[in-house]
Write a structure and sequence with these properties.
By secondary structure, this protein is α/β, with parallel strands linked by helices. The protein contains 24 helices and 17 strands.
Length: 649
């Protein structure tokens, strides 16, 4: 028999092999295509999830179906010289593999349309029942010769083929599920998969009508191609060989789920994308580094300038061994840095029980990199993780405050710092300051939550809450006959540039029933033309209501006098840094005095903030201060205590 098998391509064999028009080359070609696709899948899927398992199972089962069909036709071609059982077994194997192929394909479609688990179980139960029935019926009808069998003359009898019923049930269910759940799929993908499935079904039907099985397996390979084309893209960058951010997330989530340890070495390389595309030397150096380190694990490119080398480590690996390995990689990276001179920030982290997904790891890296100088390395530790968790808690509370949008939210506290009027020698104004009082953290200062609020577009609700509470306190002070000229509230550029800014401010002040001139708005200097135009327009809209406007933090960063003079500010607040410099440096003193005189001549009032000592206050008065603010007079206090600084009428 083995001799016959090795001579299967002889002329005599071919005459027998082409029984009923069967063409073995089709199944041979389909087998090799399955091998190629399986190898591609195993290399391109960075996450071996359910989708991968279904698709790779389809490829493996189709490979087995192709070969069982070849073997069946081979045994049939030499019937009489081999036991009939070989023919029956190979025939049944072919039918079983085709049935399994149908079931795997149906389940991949179910996964794609996110079919309810209940319906998945119902359909798979139906498939399983008919699958078992089909096997039993085939065996029984073959034995009693009412189904498929070979008679004494070597002639083939097909009889009842119950597998056809199974195939029809699966095909019907696939089209029904696709149609009923079409709204869950992108229309182009839906129509594409529908057409591919329909073409494959028609090819299978045509094979049945013509009573030959040459193209049955090819019809299923068409389905696999459809899934590959529409749903499974290559996660690797063809230029750099790096995997995608999505692949990184999947890899980390899977490692955490399976209790595996992973190490991450993240590098942010300044202007990498531009340098890589424009400089052949840098491209060669990077590719060499990739070649030397790709064997360690997978290198992911999360955006143009960020790379993460991630690899699994054994549970028995000690910290010292990990540190040695990491140091070797970083030392090698620094060698490349010395050649290409692209600035970098490197952070090193590993999976821990306290962090639950890949997204959280990235956020920890991002937070740390914000404060890292270039060309430094940092190992993420418990302090970094605790800071991240604290910030996440604050962020969640800020989101809750924003979503509830309650202007009396008790978690937002108003503090204030009284401002001393140099002319009247009294306290008649103040600056409102924000604090948070959160259950798990207590009092939180602005430097800890304002950046988080601004980054996540949550600052506006906080500011309106502060404004509302300030208005309510001003109303109480007026009612109790205290002399209060105004209280200033800080608004960020994000606030001012909102379309609803003027309406929101006007609505809150009006709701509290106080004069508009009892409120001042502090804004920092604009950085762009768009911001400048927005500030100018909003100031002009509100100026007529009586609201005063302060330019905050003058002297920090770049100050554009031309722009400042185009804006109708009432008060210029000189930053503490100017006071400190003027106190110890004659040149700084000269410049600050001239700034103050210039603004005074232009009819602006001058407020010096951050004044802490008698000498500083004396200097500020000499330089033309109208108002003094700082620890010299008071630290920030709860706004309810402001009345202790005010006089009554």
């Amino acid at each position: 028999m083995l001799l016959s098998f090795f001579n299967m391509f002889s002329e005599e064999f071919y005459k027998a092999y082409f029984y009923n028009g069967y063409v073995p080359q089709v199944d041979v070609a389909c087998s090799f295509l399955c091998l190629a696709v399986f190898l591609l899948l195993s290399r391109s899927f960075t996450r071996k999830n359910l989708d991968y398992k279904l698709l790779s199972s389809m490829v493996i089962v189709l490979f087995l179906a192709c070969n069982s069909n070849i073997i069946y036709h081979f045994f049939f071609s030499v019937r009489g010289s081999v036991p009939s059982a070989y023919i029956y077994i190979s025939k049944l194997a072919f039918l079983l593999f085709i049935g399994a192929e149908c079931i795997f394909y149906a389940n991949r479609l179910f996964s794609m349309v996110k079919l309810d688990l209940k319906w998945k179980r119902i359909w798979n139960s139906i498939y399983g029942i008919f699958y078992i029935i089909s096997i039993l019926v085939f065996v029984i009808t073959t034995i009693n010769k009412t189904g498929y069998y070979i008679d004494e003359n070597g002639d083939e009898h097909t009889g009842l083929n119950v597998f056809i019923i199974l195939y029809n049930i699966i095909v019907f269910s696939m089209f029904a599920v696709l149609f009923l759940n079409r709204s869950k799929i992108v229309s182009n993908i839906y129509s594409g998969l529908l057409y591919v499935t329909l073409i494959a079904t028609l090819m299978m039907f045509a094979s049945g009508v013509m009573k030959q099985s040459s193209f049955i397996n090819v019809s299923f390979f068409i389905n696999i191609l459809g899934l590959l084309y529409f749903l499974h893209r290559n996660p690797y960058n063809p230029d750099t060989g790096t995997a995608s951010e999505e692949a990184f997330m999947f890899a980390v989530d899977d490692a955490i789920k399976n209790g595996e340890r992973m190490l991450f070495i993240s590098a942010v390389i300044e202007n990498f994308s531009t340098a890589y595309n424009e400089n052949e030397y840098i491209k060669r150096e990077f590719n060499e580094f990739m070649k030397n380190n790709i064997k360690r694990g997978v290198i992911y490119q999360l955006h143009d300038n960020r790379f993460i080398l991630a690899y699994k480590i054994m549970a028995s690996t000690s910290f010292a061994m990990m540190k040695k390995d990491v140091d070797e990689i970083i030392d090698e990276f620094k060698v490349y840095y010395d050649r290409v001179k692209l600035n970098y920030k490197i952070t090193v982290s590993g999976t821990t029980e306290t962090i639950g997904n890949g997204s959280d790891y990235l956020k920890i890296l991002y937070e740390k990199e914000k404060v890292m100088p270039y060309n430094t390395v940092h190992f993420i530790d418990g302090v970094d993780i605790n800071n991240y968790k604290r910030n996440e808690y604050i962020l969640n509370e800020l989101r809750d405050i924003n979503n509830k949008n309650e202007l009396d939210d008790e978690r937002v506290l108003v503090y204030c710092q009284p401002v001393y009027n140099v002319r009247t020698k009294k306290y008649d104004t103040a600056e409102a300051l924000m604090r948070l009082n959160l259950e798990n953290e207590g009092i939180i200062y602005p430097d800890k939550f304002i950046p988080i609020a601004e980054e996540n577009d949550l600052i506006h609700t906080l500011t309106l809450i502060i404004l509302n509470k300030v208005c309510a306190e001003v109303k109480n002070l007026i009612k109790e006959r205290y002399v209060i000229e105004r209280i200033s509230v800080n608004f960020s550029i994000l606030d001012v540039t909102r379309e609803s800014f003027t309406d929101d401010v006007g609505r809150v002040i009006a709701k509290n029933g106080i004069p508009f001139d009892k409120i001042a708005i502090e804004v920092t200097e604009s950085k762009t033309d768009k911001e400048f135009n927005a500030i100018r327009n909003k100031i002009n809209e509100l100026k007529g209501t009586g609201i005063k406007f302060y330019l905050d933090d003058f002297g920090t960063g770049y100050s554009n006098f031309e722009r400042i003079m185009e804006l109708p500010f009432d008060i210029i607040k000189f930053d503490r840094s100017l006071v400190v410099e003027a106190e110890k440096n004659k040149n700084a003193d000269f410049m600050v005095r001239n700034f103050s005189n210039l603004f005074t001549d232009l009819k602006y009032s001058i407020l010096f903030e951050g004044v802490e000592t008698d000498d500083q206050e004396k200097l500020c008065v000499e330089m033309g201060a109208n108002y003094i603010q700082g620890y010299k007079h008071s630290k920030p206090i709860p706004i309810e205590r402001l009345s202790g600084f005010l006089e009554k009428m």
